[in-house]
């Protein structure tokens, strides 16, 4: 009920404000961020309601996908297979402003752009992804990331980490550092450890991987650990928080990572730092003290600023994890809700699905899935649904799930960018 | 207040046009993250647009019970009751391939 009042209140405000309607009489939606959330939202809005004026603000002409970028590290894919342009969106009638959003004025309902222009909106969709909490690990800043790559935004960082792995001598120690929750792609660090081990086993079999973790449990944990024992015995050592896994400082000059319990010198170091919503979220006033963005669970409207909807990794989505599948699913729900809101109607209560595959080897996949619906102001798991792959695989299930993983990737990038 | 609300809404409705008459039923929009609208060369995941609604319902029921083995579909099907499943199936059956 609170949710409904929230909508009505903002709808009334919108209805009485003359700024709602542009000269052409079209409702205007601005979307900030061209990843799986933002690009899907822009595209779906235009497909559902072709008369809408939809502008996507994204500085990069090419998007580099994080999903499957761990396979690039293991030489299973090339970085250009991760890259997608926005021509499909332009063809679908979305205006693409290739620049950054520098400021959101929630009162005036405008977005200032780095190219000097200013966009007015009736509704704003923000899907800004993540930024890093530089300095949360002492010594880890943007310069340090050139020595100890995070590779948690795919692109040049992915290529850098792969090059470092290839240049490493056989027998070298790869050290990874994984952050506490919440962060982008909860199973991602463990898929990465798996695929680096996959590659080391072939090319540098005397090498080992040490995974320092700032938490005591992780996504699909038993499946990963069973897989490591089966595929890479003795190669991956996982150090949880309680055994000194939390990295507190790094020295990029000597590739040393220091935990509460001691120091580890790496041949190659991959530091995945603590994260927050993309910086524009805080500027817009939609991020709270956690650094992430609280939203209501029906149209993902910010609970802090009206007429601004936040999607994907930046948002606090209750039980739903920060994944590309989730961002894409949220974007489609948000787009349908926006079409209704702009027409003065109430959005329907959604149900959302998340599916996330991880690779432990080229032909070894595992998965997690969940179904979510609004409950008590949050997206909550539908009881009895969801869960992970069975611990005992029968009938070639791991191979099948690796195939499903790549099939999923082809489909979702086609839907988002195609 | 009520009158202001209604007239405000009416003017927006005129300018935006009606919302799409047939919104996808709850849950349906998530399916297309894996199930493409038509056959995709690089995908082993079946497309479901234009499939018979009763076939989709039967599959979902068998995934849910475990009678038909699956990867994620059994875990997903358990999140939808018969009525919700029926609505999703009817919607995909009506979508063009």
UniProtKB/TrEMBL annotation, chain A:
Question: PROSITE patterns, alphabetically?
Answer: TAT (PS51318)
| Highest taxon in the source lineage | Bacteria
Q: Which residues form the FAD/NAD(P)-binding domain?
A: 28-131
Q: Which Gene3D superfamilies match?
A: FAD/NAD(P)-binding domain, Flavocytochrome c sulphide dehydrogenase, flavin-binding domain
Q: Which InterPro entries match?
A: FAD/NAD-bd_sf (IPR036188), FAD/NAD-binding_dom (IPR023753), FAD/NAD-linked_Rdtase_dimer_sf (IPR016156), FCSD_central (IPR049386), FlavoCytC_S_DH_flav-bd (IPR015323), FlavoCytC_S_DH_flav-bd_sf (IPR037092), SQRD (IPR052541), TAT_signal (IPR006311)
Q: Write down the SUPFAM superfamilies for this protein, in alphabetical order.
A: FAD/NAD(P)-binding domain, FAD/NAD-linked reductases, dimerisation (C-terminal) domain
What residue stretches are annotated with the Sulfide dehydrogenase [flavocytochrome c] flavoprotein chain central domain? 158-273
Pfam families documented for this protein: FCSD-flav_bind (PF09242), FCSD_central (PF21706), Pyr_redox_2 (PF07992)
- Which UniProt keywords are given for this protein, alphabetically ordered? FAD, Flavoprotein
Give all residue intervals belonging to the Flavocytochrome c sulphide dehydrogenase flavin-binding domain: 349-417
Name under which the protein is recorded: NAD(P)/FAD-dependent oxidoreductase
Lineage here is: Bacteria, Pseudomonadati, Pseudomonadota, Alphaproteobacteria, Hyphomicrobiales
Automatic annotation (TrEMBL), chain B:
Mind listing the UniProt keywords for this protein, alphabetically? Heme, Iron, Metal-binding, Signal
Instruction: Give the residue range of the signal peptide.
Output: 1-21
Q: Which residues form the Cytochrome c domain?
A: 12-96
- Its domain of life? Bacteria
Which PROSITE patterns is this protein grouped with? CYTC
The name this protein goes by in its record: Cytochrome C
Which organism is this entry from?
Answer: Reyranella aquatilis
């Amino acid at each position: 009920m609170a949710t409904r009042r929230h909508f009505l209140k903002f709808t009334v405000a919108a209805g009485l404000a003359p700024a709602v309607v542009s000269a052409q009489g079209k409702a205007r939606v601005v979307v900030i961020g061209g990843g799986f959330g933002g690009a899907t939202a822009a595209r779906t809005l235009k497909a559902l309601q072709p008369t809408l004026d939809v502008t996507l603000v994204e500085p990069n002409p090419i998007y580099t996908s994080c999903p499957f970028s761990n396979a690039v590290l293991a030489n299973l894919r090339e970085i250009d297979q991760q890259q997608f342009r926005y021509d499909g969106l332009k063809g679908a009638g979305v205006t693409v402003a290739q620049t950054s959003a520098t400021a959101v004025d929630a009162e005036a309902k405008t977005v200032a752009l780095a190219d000097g222009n200013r966009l007015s909106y009736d509704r704003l969709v923000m899907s800004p992804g993540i930024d890093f909490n530089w300095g949360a690990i002492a010594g880890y800043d943007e310069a340090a990331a050139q020595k100890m790559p995070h590779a948690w935004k795919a692109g040049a960082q992915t290529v850098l980490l792969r090059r470092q792995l290839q240049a490493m001598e056989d027998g070298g120690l790869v050290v990874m550092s994984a952050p506490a929750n919440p962060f982008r792609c909860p199973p991602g660090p463990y898929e990465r450890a798996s695929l680096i081990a996959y590659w080391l086993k072939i090319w540098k079999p005397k090498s080992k991987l040490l995974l320092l973790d700032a938490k005591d449990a992780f996504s699909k944990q038993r499946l990963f650990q069973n897989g490591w024992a089966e595929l890479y015995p003795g190669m991956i050592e996982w150090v949880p928080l309680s055994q000194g896994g939390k990295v507190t400082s790094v020295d990029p000059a000597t590739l040393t990572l220091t935990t509460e319990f001691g120091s580890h010198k790496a041949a190659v170091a991959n530091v995945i730092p603590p994260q927050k919503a993309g910086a524009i979220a805080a500027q817009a006033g939609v991020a709270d003290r956690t650094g992430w963005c609280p939203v209501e669970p029906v149209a993902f409207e910010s609970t802090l600023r009206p007429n601004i909807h936040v999607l994907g990794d930046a948002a606090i989505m209750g039980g739903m994890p920060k994944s590309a599948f989730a961002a894409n699913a949220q974007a489609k729900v948000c787009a349908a809700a926006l079409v209704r809101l702009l027409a003065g109607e109430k959005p329907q209560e959604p149900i959302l699905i998340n599916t996330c595959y991880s690779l432990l080897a080229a032909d070894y996949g595992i998965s997690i899935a969940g179904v979510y619906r609004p409950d008590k102001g949050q997206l909550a798991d539908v009881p009895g649904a969801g869960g992970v792959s069975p611990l005992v695989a029968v009938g070639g299930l791991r191979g099948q799930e690796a195939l499903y993983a790549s099939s999923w990737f082809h489909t979702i990038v086609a839907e988002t960018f195609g | 207040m009520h009158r202001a609300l209604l007239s405000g809404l009416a003017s927006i409705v005129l300018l935006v046009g009606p919302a799409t008459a047939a919104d996808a039923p709850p849950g349906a929009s998530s399916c297309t993250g894996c199930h493409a609208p038509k056959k995709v060369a690089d995908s082993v995941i079946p497309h479901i647009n234009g499939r018979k609604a009763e076939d989709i319902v039967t599959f979902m029921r068998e995934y849910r019970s475990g009678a038909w083995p699956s990867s994620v579909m059994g875990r997903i099907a358990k999140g939808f009751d018969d009525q919700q499943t029926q609505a999703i199936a009817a919607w995909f059956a009506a979508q063009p391939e």
